[in-house]
Amino acid sequence: MSFAQIVAGGIDWCVLGSFVVYLLLMLGIGFLFSKRQENMGDYFLGGRKMNKWVVALSAQASDMSGWLLMGLPGAIYVAGFSEAWIGIGLGIGTYLNWKIVAKRLRVYSHECRDSITIPDFISNRFRDESGIARSVAAVIILCFFTFYTASGFVAAAKLFSSMFAISYTAALWIGAVVVVSYTLLGGYMAVCWTDFIQGTLMFVSIVLVPAIVIFTAGGFASTVDQLNEINPYLQSLFTSASTGKAAGFIGLVSCMAWGLGYFGVPHILVRFMSIDNPAEVKGSRRIAMTWVFISLGAAVVIGLVFHLFLKQHGLTLAQVGNDPEKCFLVMINGIFDSGVVSRVFAGVLLSAILAAIMSTADSQLLVSASSFTNDLYKRVRKGASNKELVLISRLAVAIVALVAACLSMNT
User: Fold this and answer.
1) This prediction's pTM
2) Do residues 89 and 102 make contact, with C-beta atoms less than 8 angstroms apart?
3) What is the pLDDT of residues 322-337, one digit of tens each?
4) What is the rounded CA–CA span in Å between residue 61 and residue 53?
């Protein structure tokens, strides 16, 4: 299939095949870990036996979501390098969260009655015998993360429907069923290992694609010169390329403030709680920060070099869908545009977008279910066995996903 045909639309069976294999791999991981869930500690925290590599990459993959591959490059394409302050803030916030919170939370969550959820830790840490703090925290997580999971389902559905010419509803249920299946079967370990694979795929894709465009443009120096010719403000940290005006101090601070959110994100914090040994946190932090800074930098470069990509192919944004957030998708289809092997490889790289979306949705789904089972249901049914609690946990995953999918139908 040529690039012109790709732009025009239609089903690409090579790409579809890559997606199917990828989804089957995720389901296989869920099945692999389905027999290793003996209690809630295993189902929601992996028995605190996760190695530093899995913790690092799963934490960052579940954090960045599709925003890394679509939202940030789109913003950079429109406004230039001045939008990179968002990435700078996120990078700083990620580092401080690992540096300040990670090891302390791993140690104290274990010492505080072996807490396995964030509401559990809050209740035990502050000796909340009334259970009010636990219940309030659990309800907040359950409510807001259900909506957040729904947003992930919406993103996956739009990706499927736009690429394979199927209805939004069908695409929604395909994505939801896959995410629910491996999360329900394998619990935390399945989520972390799928996120580890997804994080690796995201990293390879986001680095490889802009590197190819830069090479095609004649190298780094040539790329810089050509971007200056297109718009002299594209590479300015302090001037918006869309308006030509200086970015205000309040605007820059607001962008960097995105990083403050990391200190309270439950699906990131539980990663810290699950690491095998507190001494491993330092190594895990280094892995995570390497992934974060390279990935954020590559996402910024994607947004910039998309200008060059369009120029090289004699296209305008309107001719490729008029949506700057799809620049990563368009670039992959344009680079690998002919031949079965090329299109299969394109499918693998395009799966990175789905990976980014799924890695967040599955984590949010599991955190929501854990809040219901451990912090609400278990408090009411105090004599529940481990077998019953694991069963209720799986039912909670299914119910939360069903509610999220129904909410997504109204989008």
Assistant:
1) 0.89
2) no
3) 888 889 988 998 888 8
4) 12
